[in-house]
Write a structure and sequence with these properties.
By secondary structure, the chain is of the alpha+beta class. It has helices spanning 110-117, 133-141, 150-169, 183-193, 200-205, 211-222, 226-244, 249-255, 261-272, 276-287, and strands spanning 15-18, 30-40, 54-61, 63-68, 73-77, 80-84, 90-93, 100-108, 127-129. It has two domains: 15-147, Jelly Rolls (Sandwich); 181-288, Arc Repressor Mutant, subunit A (Orthogonal Bundle). A hairpin with a 4-residue loop joins β4 and β5 (73-77).
Length: 288
């Protein structure tokens, strides 16, 4: 996978480099296109475009004006990300200024439609800010596996959902971060790390909250209840293990705190549409 270096002055011409995507449908959706551009001149405000998919565009350098058919306007600079929606006409234009550099992902599917219905992806709140720039550039590029096929595509979708959740939680303009909660990152890290189900009342008291308060605040910030978040992270780690080695399913299930390999397999298939064995086989085939 190749990336452009941004050490020279931005040229006047638009140069873009496509990045490899798995390019396969999954029950959750897929990342269909990706790229990194230098000297992007965007879409003129006089000729708004409607994209047939969602997209995340992250500005690496330069400035542009972003706007949509609702009348929303915002000047963007390095560290700003903007979301595009399938049915919302938009433009992003440098105007009289210099073009800008960016990295972008195009995606679609039921998982993202569900987030939109829940208000986690919202055309009325489509500009987020995230720094440092190089860190987030690498995080966005890290969504891509470099593989092919349905299993690699599932990895990309789950990575993108995790990325969007993290950006959303840190977004100063959104409901999740309008009142910053310093306990959130620590709570998420603890839920990521433990294989043993917590005593939720005791766990919540560590952050000065009742369980009901903790559940509501965590759900608002992360988009899912804490138990669902913990399960999703365990299944993400299981997917990584299935990709990394040939460990028996029984061993992976025990390591990640599932009661047995059959329960693990059932939950994994419910989330991905594939059994762990089929996922491992398909991912291996996609790497060849």
């Amino acid at each position: 996978m190749c990336f452009l270096e941004f050490t020279k002055p931005m040229p006047k011409s638009w140069e873009t480099r496509s990045l490899d995507v798995a390019n396969a449908p999954t029950p959750m959706g897929s990342v269909t296109l990706a790229g990194q551009s230098r000297g992007n001149r965007g879409i003129a405000r006089t000729s708004m475009r409607v994209l047939g998919s969602y997209a995340l565009v992250y500005v690496l350098a330069g400035k542009c004006e972003f706007g949509d058919a609702s009348g929303y306007r915002r000047t963007l600079a390095a560290g700003d990300a903007f979301l595009l929606f399938p049915d919302v006409a938009h433009f992003y234009d440098p105007g009289a200024g210099e073009p800008w550099d960016d990295i972008w992902l195009v995606f679609n599917g039921p998982a993202f439609d569900g987030w939109r219905q829940a208000g986690l992806l919202d055309p009325a709140d489509s500009v987020w800010h995230a720094e440092p720039v190089d860190y987030w550039r690498q995080r966005i590029a890290g969504v891509l596996t470099g593989g092919r096929g349905g299993a690699a595509a599932l990895v990309e979708v789950t990575r993108l959902l995790a990325l969007l959740a993290e950006m959303r939680a840190g977004h100063a303009g959104g409901f999740a971060a309008a009142r910053p909660e310093p306990w959130l990152e620590e709570a998420a890290a603890k839920l990521d790390a433990t294989a043993v189900p917590p005593d939720w009342e005791k766990f919540s008291r560590e952050f000065g909250l009742t369980y009901e308060q903790f559940r509501k605040k965590f759900s608002a910030a992360m988009g899912v209840p804490p138990a669902h978040y913990r399960l999703a992270r365990r299944l993400d780690r299981a997917a990584a293990r299935l990709q990394a080695d040939d460990a028996p399913l029984k061993e992976i299930a025990a390591e990640l705190g599932f009661c047995d390999e059959f329960h693990f397999s059932k939950l994994f298939k419910r989330r991905t549409g594939l059994s762990p064995s089929a996922y491992r086989t398909q991912l291996g085939s996609g790497k060849k």
